[in-house]
């Protein structure tokens, strides 16, 4: 078992992260020890409920089962979650428990952050992507017709329980989408300003085969490193006023790809990897890096055989990026590589991108 802590400046917002390989049937009792009130609502992925619902042991009355897919992170489901919480009589001392991937965590966290102006919520990520990224840091949101995550708030969980056994049953594509967020840390590691020297790039390159094979001991170390890097950033900049923007590396273009293809053609991780490749090409053209670093980056990405993003109409991509919440004063915000494992924000206008 590994115990980490996210230390937010406002002490009451700090919370533990537990990474373990214990039996899934033991998870419920651990979660309930972290709940102050008498009641709770479990928001659970449909696939997770199908595979593990009997082991988790929550009753039908305590659960809201959310269908799988990015399109489910919408206003209608958000409304249904709030109505169920109200019918159950949840009070400000009660809690919402999110069990699933990033979609479940995002919408459950947003519901918790807005229900009665905020009640506790607990993250139980069941995908690699959620383990290394969305379950930690307090970003909660739902999507709108105008783009991804445009309606949301920063709201930190009370605790995060990561059980590696959930990763055994992920299909190959969903596992790889998590690796898309994992490899991001290779290129931003130094900019994370972590007090501990992790040498994440070396770990990724030396353990590629074990990572692809889902060796649980290797994944335990991998997730720990990713969360140490992310926690370092979140602790220094909780609400993305400066440093935390680096975590969006690959996401400006990636989110645009997801929106233009209506969240049906590419997973989030595949789109992010496409965004990383785009960022490296853009950085080289602007003279921020040399071609050798771009070749190095592409070599790391190629080892994991991510699905390639097909060429999309640049006009549609730019229109989507201009609607991104990170856009400022008519310019589009990109996180671009400037040196090995180092990135910085660059604001570009439409012509500079085209």
How is the secondary structure organized here?
Elements: E1 2-6, E2 15-20, H1 27-32, E3 40-45, H2 46-56, E4 63-66, H3 75-88, E5 95-100, H4 102-114, E6 120-125, H5 128-134, E7 139-144, E8 147-154, E9 159-163, H6 172-188, H7 200-206, H8 208-212, H9 216-236, H10 251-260, H11 268-285, H12 291-303, H13 314-322, E10 332-339, E11 342-348, H14 350-353
Parallel strand pairs: 2-9, 3-4, 3-5, 5-6, 6-9
Antiparallel strand pairs: 1-2, 7-8, 10-11
Helix pairs in contact: 3-4, 5-6, 5-9, 6-11, 10-11, 10-13, 11-12
Summarize the structure in words:
This protein is α/β, with parallel strands linked by helices and 354 residues long. It has helices at residues 27-32, 46-56, 75-88, 102-114, 128-134, 172-188, 200-206, 208-212, 216-236, 251-260, 268-285, 291-303, 314-322, 350-353; strands spanning 2-6, 15-20, 40-45, 63-66, 95-100, 120-125, 139-144, 147-154, 159-163, 332-339, 342-348. The strands form 3 sheets. The protein has a 7-stranded mixed beta sheet. A two-stranded antiparallel ribbon has the order 7-8. The mean pLDDT is 95.
Question: What is the compact description of this entry?
Answer:
44% of the residues lie in helices and 19% in strands. The chain is an alpha/beta fold and 354 residues long.
Q: Please summarize the sheet with the most strands.
A: 7 strands, mixed
Query: So how many helices?
Result: 14
* Percent of residues in helices: 40-55%
Structural class: alpha/beta
Round the mean pLDDT to the nearest integer and report it: 95
Give the beta-strand count: 11
CA-CA gap between termini: 48 Å
Shape: globular
| Proportion of beta-strand residues | 15-25%
Poorly predicted spans: none
Which strands sit side by side, in order, in the main sheet? 1-2-9-6-5-3-4
CA radius of gyration: 19 Å
> Could you spell the SSE succession in H and E letters?
EEHEHEHEHEHEEEHHHHHHHHEEH
């Amino acid at each position: 078992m590994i115990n980490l802590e996210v230390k937010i400046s406002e002490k009451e917002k700090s919370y533990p992260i537990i990474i373990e390989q214990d039996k899934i049937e033991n998870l419920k009792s651990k979660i309930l020890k972290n709940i102050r009130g008498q009641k709770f609502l479990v928001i659970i992925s449909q696939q997770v409920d199908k595979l593990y619902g009997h082991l988790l042991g929550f009753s039908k009355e305590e659960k809201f089962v959310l269908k799988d897919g990015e399109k489910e992170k919408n206003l209608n489901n958000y409304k249904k979650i709030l109505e169920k919480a109200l019918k159950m009589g949840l009070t400000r001392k009660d809690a919402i428990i999110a069990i699933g991937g990033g979609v479940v965590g995002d919408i459950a966290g947003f519901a918790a952050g807005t229900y009665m102006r905020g009640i506790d919520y607990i993250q139980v990520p069941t995908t690699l992507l959620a383990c290394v990224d969305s379950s930690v840091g307090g970003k909660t949101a739902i999507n709108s017709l105008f783009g991804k995550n445009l309606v949301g708030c920063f709201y930190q969980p009370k605790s995060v329980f990561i059980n590696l056994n959930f990763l055994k049953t992920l299909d190959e594509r969903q596992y790889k989408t998590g690796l898309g967020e994992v490899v991001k840390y290779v290129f931003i590691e130094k900019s994370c300003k972590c007090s501990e020297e992790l040498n994440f790039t070396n770990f990724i390159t030396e353990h590629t085969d074990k990572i692809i094979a889902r060796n649980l001991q290797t994944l335990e170390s991998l997730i720990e490193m990713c969360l140490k890097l992310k926690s370092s950033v979140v602790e220094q900049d909780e609400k993305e006023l400066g440093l935390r923007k680096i975590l969006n590396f690959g996401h400006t273009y990636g989110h645009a790809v997801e929106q233009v293809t209506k969240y049906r053609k590419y997973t989030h991780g595949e789109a992010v990897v496409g965004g990383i490749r785009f960022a490296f090409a853009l950085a080289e053209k602007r003279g921020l890096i040399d071609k050798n670093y771009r070749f190095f980056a592409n070599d790391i990405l190629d080892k994991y055989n991510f699905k390639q993003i097909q060429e999309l109409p640049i006009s549609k991509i730019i229109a989507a990026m201009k609607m991104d919440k990170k856009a400022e004063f008519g310019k589009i915000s990109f996180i671009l590589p400037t040196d090995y494992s180092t990135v910085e924000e660059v604001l570009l206008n439409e012509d500079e991108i085209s």
